[in-house]
Design goal:
single chain, 18 strands, 475 residues, 35% helix, alpha/beta, four-stranded antiparallel sheet
Length: 475
């Protein structure tokens, strides 16, 4: 058997006028862990998508385990022996963890449709074997106890592990992981490293696409320009007035209580950080505030009135806007069209002017204004998601993990923009895994654990609290 698992030469890919890949080559030897690194926009995600069949290449030779393969479709590439995970989690949310892994095994099954319909003996035997193998893999990645839980109810870190288990179910020759540590805290990253080391020792070959190349990277040369009119005021609120307040908030997923009686408030002009481990309930809290997740109990007040049950689109009209975890851009629309969508609630004549101001904040978006959003890197999509939110001229901006999966240079850029937006008077509630950067920027902070607020206070005090430093800063 060849010692080379994957060899690619001359890979090229163009999106309209953008040459995303130009004569790229790579060689990956068996039993090793490789990292694919580079700044946002370098072509890493495009290369990942090409070798795994998501994007058809314009040219190139692709050889897997000594045999030529054509990356024409993801399921075909998976059958050939390359399994992947995604930068933004793509599980089947309403299937159980066990069912998700069983689905991953389908490329190695032999029963045809007729066997499934008539439940033949061979089908039943094969289904039993698939179920047993799926349980083994859940145990292997450390989440067997959640086998019968719906995937969407798992914590973020456990969903990452579930994706890896599903990929391993295909018996891959190459495991391609796209930003597997994105959004994880220091402890979870250490646990992931131990898991990947174990996978390697068991004979697997791993390719990791990673933006975090090194610590202490220089700051981005791009500087944000003034955007005062993007922080348009909506009403005369006093400086001491509480703009956003939640009391006794409870949210459940089936029988699982994800948020357990949370109280939180944000005053006009504040930047408040909400930190905590994956699965603590931070994202669920933001979704409940914006009407994306039904509330079991409690109240949400915005600008002095209850907004329970209102839809996210209604709240945007009132000045409450969220940039979701995972960006949520319109992948089949261009950058310019995404920004125009951000202003869909507006009827004024300053929309074009505000788009130019967003381009001033994020020059890269202007360079690629006609590019489809789905072909952009993760960092570029984060820029677009924030720019789109600014187009609504928010009074209160909710940011859910804006630095997740970004390179150090891009993280610097995003936090510079967050700071500038705050200085312009926009009230911000920031959910962020990077506790040090978030608390360093905030006025006040809240710490969540297991669905409850366990600590609150001035951000500076939390930043230097030994309990916070030990739990979230790895010190």
């Amino acid at each position: 058997m060849s010692d080379t698992v994957l060899r690619v030469s001359g890979a090229s890919k163009r999106f309209g006028g953008l040459q995303a890949l130009n004569d790229v080559g790579i060689q990956i030897d068996r039993g090793q862990i490789y990292g694919l690194i580079g700044p946002n926009g370098a072509g890493k995600t495009t290369f990942f998508n090409v070798i795994t069949g998501l994007y058809p290449p314009d040219s190139g030779d692709f050889i897997l385990a000594g045999k030529a393969y054509k990356p024409a479709a993801v399921h075909q590439v998976a059958r050939e022996g390359i399994a992947r995970t995604f930068q933004n989690i793509r599980l089947f949310p309403d299937m159980t963890a066990l069912e998700n892994v069983m689905v991953g095994r389908h490329v190695r099954t032999n029963s045809a449709l007729i066997g499934a319909v008539f439940r033949t003996r061979h089908f039943k035997t094969e289904e039993k074997a698939i179920r047993e193998r799926a349980r083994e893999l859940l145990a292997y990645v450390g989440i067997e106890r959640y086998a019968d839980f719906r995937a969407r109810t798992l914590s973020y870190g456990d969903q990452r592990r579930l994706e890896i288990a599903r990929a391993l179910a295909t018996d891959p020759q190459l495991l391609a992981l796209d930003e597997p540590a994105a959004g994880m805290n220091a402890t979870e990253k250490l646990q992931l490293r131990e898991l990947l080391t174990a996978i390697q020792k068991d004979g697997r070959t791993i390719l990791i696409r990673q933006d975090h190349c090194r610590r202490g990277a220089r700051r981005s040369a791009e500087k944000s320009e003034s955007h005062r009119s993007l922080s348009g005021r909506r009403g005369a609120l006093s400086m001491s007035e509480t703009v956003l307040k939640i009391t006794g908030l409870r949210v459940s997923y089936g029988g699982i209580q994800a948020v357990k009686g949370v109280d939180l408030e944000v005053r006009k002009g504040e930047l408040v950080s909400l930190i905590g481990a994956n699965g603590a309930g931070k994202t669920t809290t933001l979704k409940a505030i914006t009407g994306l997740q039904p509330i079991t109990d409690g109240e949400v007040h915005y600008a002095g009135r209850t907004i329970n049950g209102q839809g996210a689109y209604d709240l945007v009209r009132q000045g409450l806007c969220m940039v979701p975890e995972g960006r949520g851009v319109f992948t089949r629309m261009t950058i310019a069209e995404n920004l125009q969508m951000g202003a869909y609630t507006r009827k004024d004549k300053e929309i074009d002017s505000d788009i130019e101001k967003v381009y001033g904040i994020f020059p890269r978006l202007k360079e690629r204004r006609d590019q489809l959003a789905g072909t952009m890197s993760g960092g570029e999509q984060q820029m677009l998601a924030m720019g789109r939110a600014l187009m609504s001229r928010p009074q209160v901006l909710l940011l859910d993990e804006p630095s997740m999966g970004l390179s150090p240079i891009m993280v610097d850029k995003i936090f510079e923009v967050v700071e500038d937006i705050s200085k312009q008077g926009v009230t911000i509630l920031l959910v962020e895994q990077n506790a040090k950067r978030a608390l360093g920027l905030a006025d006040r902070g809240y710490v969540m654990d297991s669905g409850q607020v366990t600590m609150t206070g001035p951000a500076e005090e939390l930043l230097h609290d030994p309990r916070v430093r030990a739990a979230y800063l790895g010190e």
